[in-house]
Every structure is written in C-alpha cells, then in structure tokens.
Amino acid sequence: MSDFPYAGYAGKYLRVNLTTGNIETLALPVEWAENFLGGNGIGTKILWDEVPAHVDALDPANKLIVATGPLCGGLMPNTSRLEFVAKSPLTGIYGDANAGGHFGPQLKFAGYDLIVFEGKARAPVYLFIRDARVELRDAAHLWGKGGYETERLIQNENHDPEIKTAVIGQAGENQVRFASIMVSWSRHAARSGIGAVMGAKNLKAIAVRGTRDLRLADPVAHRDLAFRLHNEIRTNEFFAGVHRFGTAGLVSLMHPMGRFPTKNFQYGSFDGFEKISGETLRAEHLVRDLGCFDCPVNCDKSYTVTSGEFAGVTTSSVEYESLNSLGAAVLNRCLPAVLKANELCDDWGLDSISAGRAISFLFELREKGILAREECDGLDLAWGNYRTLLELLRRMTWREGNLGNWLAEGAARAAKLIGRGAERYAMHVKGQSIPAQDGRAQQSMGLAHVTSSRGADHLKAFPVIDETGYASEAVRRYGAEYLPELVDPLATRYKAMLVKDGEDFGAVVDSCGNCKSGGTFVMAEVYWEEQATAIRTMTGMALDAAQLRVIGERIYNLQRCYNALHGIARADDVLPWRFTQIPSPSGNAQGSVCRLDVMLPEYYALRGWDAELGLPTRETLARLDLAGTWDRIRTARASGAAQETHAQLGWAEPYTGPAVDAL
Amino acid sequence: MSEIVVRVRYFNVLADYAGAKHAAVRVPAGTSVRGLLQHLIAINPERFRRALATGDALNAYLRVFHNERLVARDAFDTPLADDDEVMLFPAIAGG
C-alpha cells in the first residue's frame, strides 16, 4: 500500500526514460496534489519545471505527461478522463489533450497516478503495465500499423482483451503536427498534436491493466454524493438529447444560429446541414451507443455504412466537430464520406478538427488563385470533392508530395511555408485551427479562442451557458443580476467573467479526471461546491470551493506563464480578420462580428493581468503562490530569450489587416 | 385570410416524439409563436408535451427559431405569417 496521505490517489507515479530504458516508480509529491490536484494541473507543473522554452516540441528533451486525477476511477459520474500534457508540436507552446474511455481508471487501478516520459527510444517501443510489472517492449511489429490494429495486437499478444491502450497511428509516427492519440479504441486525445510527441519519442503505445483497489476517504459520503449526481444527470432536461445524439445533435441547432462554420468560415450556415446532421447520422448509420467509465450519458456511438461507395466503414466518436470539419468546412454533403474520413482520422491518428481545417484552407487557397493548378499534385481542390478530401488525409498522414507536407504542418504553419498571402485564409489562434465554434455567433466563444492556453479551442472555457441560453444554470452559478445578457450569445456583457470562470473550473475538472460533457458544463449538476465535496470525500483533502477556485486560477495562470516564456503576450490574443471585420452572413448571428476589443480588456482586468502585456502581474502570481514564476518571465523577456523563442514558433501570425474580401 | 399555414420543423428528440421531422400546421391568422406551441402541444403525444412544457409553463430550454432567428423568451407573442418557418429544438448543448 502507498503511504500517500490522501485516499483516491494511487500515491505513486512512473518516470520512464526512453533513452536509457530506465523506469522508476516514485512517490507522488504531496505538494503536487495539494497545489495542482492531478491531470492537467500536475502536467502543467512538470512542464513548467522540466521543459525549458528553448526545447523543440519534437526534441527528446520535451516530456510527455500522461496523468489521471483524484476523481478518476471513482464513483462520480464520468470519471474516466485522462490528460496528456507536453509542449505542442503544432503551436510550439503549452499543449494538452484529454480523452475519456477506460485507460485512466486502469492506470489508477494499476497503482499509478501518472507517467512522465523522457528522452527518445532508439527503436519503437511500447510501455506495458500490469500492476507492479512495468516494462518497455519492442514495438517494431506495431510500427506502421493503425490504431485499431495496434490495440488488437497488443491485447492478443498479452492474451487479455481487457488491456486498455493509448496508441498512435501512422500520423504520429510521421510526426504530423496535429497527430492524435487513440485511447481505448473509441476515444481520442486529439488536440495540440501530442501524438507527434509520442512518435518523436519512438513510443508507439502505452498498455495498461490494473487490478488493485482504490481507497476512498469517506466511502459512504462519496457514494451518496455520486449517486445523487448520477440521478440528477439522468433526469436533467438535456439528458435525452445528449444521450440519444451525442454532440452530433448540435449540427441542426448551429445551422440557424449561424454558428456552423462553412467553407473555411466564409459562412455560418450550411444548406446541406440535414444531410450530415445528428438526426440523419442516427437514423441511417447507428450501430449502438458507447459509454466511458462510470458514465450515465453514453454520448459516444458506433456507426457503420452498409451500402454504396463506402460500404464497410465502421467508426465511432463522430462528433459535432468532425461533422463540421470533414463536412461543412469543405462543403462535403456526403455523410458516408464524412464517416469514412472520420474512420481514417481515428485509425491513422489525426485530429479531425485540424485535418479538416487544413484541407478547407487549401481549398480556399485554390479558390482564391493563390495555389495554381500545377501546384496541386494532380488533385482537384474543388469545394465538396470528398474524394480529394480522403486522398489529402492519406497524403498528410504519410507527408506525401507538396500538399501532404504542407498539410501535415497544419494550416498556420503551411501558410508560412506557402507565403503569397496564404496567411489570410489560415483561420487559427496561436497556431491551432479554430474549431466549429464561430465567435461572431457566440461572443464568449470568440474570447475563449484567444484566451485558451493551447491555442484556438472551445473546451478550455467551454462557455455553454450562452451557447443557446442556459438561464436557470446562469442564475444558479452567477446570480439573476447577470441576465439577460449573460445568456444572450450575441451580447458581450459579462462574457469575460463567464470565460474566466469556465477556464478556472475547467482546469480543475481536467485535473480531477471527470468529464466536461456530462455533469460539469453540459448537464451542469457539478459546480465548485459539488466538485470540492467530491474531492474531499474521495481523498480526505481539506478543500472547500474557495480554495478550489484558487487552484483553478493557479493552474490556468501557470499555463499562461509557460506561454509567456515563449514570448506569448497580448499581441497574440487575436482572431483572424474574418471574425472581427466581416459580419456573419446568416442565421441568428447575421450582421454580428466578434467584439474582442470590448471583452479582452475586461478579461485581463478580471484575471489580474497587465492590460498592456496581457500577462499576470507580480501581485497576481504572488496571490496564487506562484511568485517565482514572475521573475523567470521577466528574465526571459528582458534577455530577449522569450522573443527569440517566439520568432521560431513556426506559424504565420493570424491576418488582422484590412478585410481582403466580403466573406 | 382566416387561417395561415406555418412550416414547423422538429429536431433532435422532438422529431422522435412528434413522429415527424416537419409538418405544415394550419392555425388561425394572428396566431403567435406561443399560440403555435400550445397548438402543437395539444395535437402531439404526451412525451412531446412533456418536452415542451411543465403544466402550463413552456420549458426554459426550448429553443424556437422564427424564420431562422432565435426567438427570445419575451418575444413569444410575436404573430406568425402565412408560410413562416418555425424550427423547434429541445434542450441541447455542448460542442
């Protein structure tokens, strides 16, 4: 048994040096748990302490942290989540990705809260964990295989179908900068390109099987809380729609909202939305519902295509985002082709958001004449050509030809390589492509993209309260005095508060191991008080909601500090021109632009960040017990090291100059 | 014109509950958005009614688009015109 003072934790972690093959089992530092909880928080702390800003993301000196949190594996709803933290090959700054499934709890049951991977193996390996038995194994026979086959081979050779895996496909091996990690086959840690970090380390997979008990501090109180919350989620008004259609159910709603990016964000509505909607997907392709560990929602589903050109396709995790990036973003109305593209992204290990966005960027370059026909490697880059879409997914995975190599770098870096004004059509923030969440149609989401610590992203702040108007939850969380503006997606008032609170709470959720889509943000039965009670009853840690808020702030500020070492500051907190200058052309958002100029200063003030620099002040960091970080940032900026690192990030800055056309 | 026809489109679980994705609904001229919803509650099965209302009160998370514009809760008395389109969504959120 571990002598760690808190229950709920395994109390140990693994440090795996891939260069030497040395594996250490170490006691989890108590101060990590008390100050950063786990998952996202401890991952950030390790990155800050151990990976200097000058280290390239694909260098062996980058580290990969695979971390559970204190609630992972417990009784609370959706406590499956696993966090991957590393410097991102896509953005060059702080990166993370999160996935559900069953791997996280298995790691905890094996006796480890997290794993830190260092160095680079000489040849492909995978890490095998069965309780106390931990070993690096040869993965030469797995290299070159897709995610599905890799998991199956690992389970077969170990004669155990219950082994859970986190694996990369060929995209990770080839260091595609937005490569994902497949987790227990149906979930994916996709953003930030962490799969390429695994590939650069010659780490093909992690396989785990755990059989140990997990101790709870107050089992009865924890059980009672968890059961109450399970029941409340099941009777929540949002449950039926989310359970039945998953995130795919959002497609139909976002069309009239004008919030469904179409043709590389030229439009906010898609006239073919019903062909790729969640309703059509379920009616024509559903096999069955899928669920993560201890989840009452089962938002994931598996789908198949039984006839036509794509007969035989079987895929899962067909999310709202993928239906957009592989559908509307490229004007693809063929749902079976979207499913095929999704299957390929999952198996080869591509973030479907960044992959689809890169392709839509390329299509627009062709449309605008920036790319000549003879530069297109023999492909027809016409909007809606799904055969080209599928072929480009293959070429980017294997970095084949000009187009494949450009695309494998992601839209923002490709824009820099191509030049000729291509940056005008790369819709990104800090190197990461903007997901299907248009800030013109939901002001808070525009702010969330620029303040996200991992580049454009909807899940850091996850401001669902004003997505369509979540009034009773807004009153419960913030008070009636903030209505109606707080729940109006087109209003800017109070959105800085919403985004900041979401980022802080989200950092805590991602550090604990529960899920944002079921119970904390969507079907929001769990907020600060409930989360604090859950941690207290699971671990015995004397935490109240106020203390938990400070931890959330600490984690998010430390991520900003890490980015500041890379020269990130206010000048990088921008959206491309299309979002701030071109009024949304359709739906409920028609005529709206994103008003960052109004929201961002308010956000900095709420955060206690310097208004000019957009960085935490010395006082703010001292309040968060991060005093030493300020000196390190000041030194990096004063010496010019931060600016030098920024100059090498590799992506074209988002174009914010005069509008180049009307769409 | 004593009657108008409104094109109603049901989404998500509402389509399952109504047994249709869309309907051409005939209502008296001058009917408001609220009046249309009350009419739909009256003609559809019980679980459709439960998704739209609790007692006489319309549920908070029901989303209504009138000619592709989100109808604010205080604008439910807006009158409808012949051939208007109304889209109905139950509680959905996420991303």
Structure annotation, total helices of chain B: 3
* Uncertain ranges of chain B: none
State the oligomer.
heterodimer
- The N- to C-terminal Cα distance of chain A equals 62 Å
Order of helices and strands of chain B: EHEHHEEEEE
Helical fraction of chain A:
40-55%
What report would you give on this structure?
The complex is a heterodimer of chains A (663) and B (95). Chain A is an alpha+beta fold and 663 residues long. In chain A, 40% of the residues lie in helices and 12% in strands. In chain A, the strands form 4 sheets. In chain A, strands 2-1-6-3-4-5 form a 6-stranded mixed β-sheet. In chain A, strands 8-7-12-9-10-11 form a 6-stranded mixed β-sheet, sandwiched between helices. The radius of gyration of chain A is 23 Å and the shape is globular. Chain A starts with 11 loop residues before the first strand and ends in a 16-residue tail after the last helix. The mean pLDDT of chain A is 97. In chain B, the strands form 2 sheets. In chain B, strands 2-1-7-5-6 form a 5-stranded mixed β-sheet. A two-stranded antiparallel ribbon of chain B has the order 3-4. The A-B interface holds A 237-238, 240-242, 244-245, 247, 249-250, 252-253, 256-257, 269, 278-279, 320-321, 435-437, 458-459, 462, 464, 467-472, 484, 517, 521-522, 586-588 and B 11-13, 15-16, 21, 51, 59-61, 63, 65, 68-70, 72-73, 87, 89-95.
